[in-house]
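Structure in, sequence out. Go:
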């Protein structure tokens, strides 16, 4: 009987299906995917062409983007839903996310330093994601720069509102979804009768991204949601915005938490705070966090309040008088030494970085229901002994920025900003992360400028790889650590 003869067909990259090839490449490291574009072998030009085209597939970069997002604390935001992003835009943003992580720890010089004009009284704020730089003016106006542009230009977001005021600006965005974000604008104006006393106005704006149909460029459009007269009559110390809550306090005044969604239109009078501190609380800094948490820094302890058990909006007639709370007693805290909150998906916690007079610490709060909080109380953990003299801070994401003799901290990097034109990047991972504490390191970077740094604190956005600082009196600088052409080792 004749036996069937099965002749095997040789399998190579040219014979397997396109879908299978894309699936294989999607599982590679991003640097390996970039290498596929650099393979040029004359004897295998057809194969090189197939690999090059496959490495540019949308499915490949969508897989890389999702993997990069899932491995980080916090998420970068896209101005449009992923499904509406062009292939080139998706690849560019994924590469920025991936290369920024590599370049923070690199010993190479910074990739790009761009200078933008500024006025000394401008108050700067970088929106999470690193694309939009906001500047509040002394007239109550807000302008913005699109840092993704090669040559960013100033555009008006909110027009002039006063002849002269002292503004403060912060933002809040839901990184779990694309779409509008919110900004809180606090403006203090002196009455003219007594220096140091005046009135305060707090405004909440929704900011959306629109596409200009004429040239397909992105622009921001702001819509005022509410405004109210603040309770303080002195200059603002701290402003925090998270979800439907805004909190602030002025010099020698109470801490106030306002449920801004319960205030309709412009309410100069007739509103009630959700919660307020006693007059003698001696608070030095604060931050709101997801889950209606409020963190207060006092001289020798931290107070953590849970405001989730709030009154019904229709019966807001008086502030909350009691709520769940925790107290952590630790060494003296410097002023302005708390980062913004960071949500850690892997541990389901909200985290802050703080600095005492000696060390760098992390504050870990449970994220979830009240029962979760009862079983998992807040933790205060040491991240690293302070390697530099530390004072006031501003916050970023995993890195941070500061003024002379100060550091702005976040999770898990910090950037010290001496009075000279030098940056010191400090890496301080958390105890539950790999290689702690051996991963700690410090890096010095020279920045072009005249050393004039005293009016504005540098800002940082770790995921985009950007730092904004003021190395000179007449301009600000945007440092870009992410590379447009990522490094690929041989």
């Amino acid at each position: 009987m004749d036996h069937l003869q099965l002749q095997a067909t040789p399998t190579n990259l040219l014979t397997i299906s396109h879908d299978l090839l894309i699936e294989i490449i999607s599982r590679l490291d991003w640097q390996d995917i970039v290498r596929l574009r650099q393979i040029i072998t004359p004897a295998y030009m057809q194969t090189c062409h197939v690999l090059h085209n496959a490495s540019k597939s949308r499915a490949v970069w969508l897989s890389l983007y999702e993997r990069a997002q899932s491995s980080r604390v916090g998420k970068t935001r896209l101005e449009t839903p992923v499904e509406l992003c062009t292939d080139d835009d998706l690849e560019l943003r994924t590469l920025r996310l991936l290369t920024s992580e590599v370049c923070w720890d690199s010993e190479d010089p910074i990739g790009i330093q761009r200078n933008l004009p500024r006025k000394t009284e401008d108050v700067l704020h970088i929106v999470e994601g690193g694309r939009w730089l906001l500047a509040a003016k002394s007239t109550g106006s807000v302008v913005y720069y699109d840092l993704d542009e090669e040559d960013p230009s100033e555009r008006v977001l909110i027009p002039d509102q006063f002849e002269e005021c002292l503004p403060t600006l912060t933002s809040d965005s839901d990184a779990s979804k694309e779409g509008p974000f919110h900004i809180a604008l606090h403006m203090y104006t002196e009455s003219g009768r007594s220096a140091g006393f005046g009135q305060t106005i707090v405004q909440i704006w929704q900011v959306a991204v629109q596409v200009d149909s004429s040239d397909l460029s992105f622009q921001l459009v702001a819509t005022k949601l509410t405004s109210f007269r603040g309770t303080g009559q002195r200059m603002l110390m701290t402003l925090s915005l998270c979800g439907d809550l805004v909190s602030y306090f002025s010099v020698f005044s109470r801490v106030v938490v306002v449920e801004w969604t319960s205030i309709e239109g412009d309410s100069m009078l007739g509103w009630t705070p959700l919660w307020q501190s006693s007059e003698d609380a001696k608070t030095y800094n604060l931050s709101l966090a997801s889950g209606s948490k409020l963190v207060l820094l006092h001289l020798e302890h931290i107070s953590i309040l849970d405001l989730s058990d709030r009154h019904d909006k229709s019966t807001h007639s008086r502030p909350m008088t009691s709520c769940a709370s925790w107290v952590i007693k630790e060494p003296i805290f410097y002023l302005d030494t708390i980062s913004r909150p960071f949500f850690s998906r892997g541990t389901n916690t909200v985290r802050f970085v703080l600095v005492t007079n000696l060390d760098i610490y992390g504050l870990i709060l449970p994220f979830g229901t009240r029962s979760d909080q009862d079983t998992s109380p807040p933790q205060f953990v040491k991240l690293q002994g302070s390697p530099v003299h530390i004072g006031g801070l501003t916050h970023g994401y995993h890195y941070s920025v500061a003024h002379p003799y100060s550091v702005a901290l976040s999770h898990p990097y910090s950037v010290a900003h001496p009075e000279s034109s030098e940056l010191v990047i400090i890496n301080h991972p958390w105890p539950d992360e790999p290689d702690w504490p051996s991963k700690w390191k410090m890096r010095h970077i020279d920045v072009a400028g005249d050393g004039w740094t005293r009016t504005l604190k540098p800002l940082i956005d770790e995921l985009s790889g950007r730092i904004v600082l003021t190395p000179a009196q007449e301009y600000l600088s945007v440092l870009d650590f992410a590379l447009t052409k990522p490094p690929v080792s041989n």
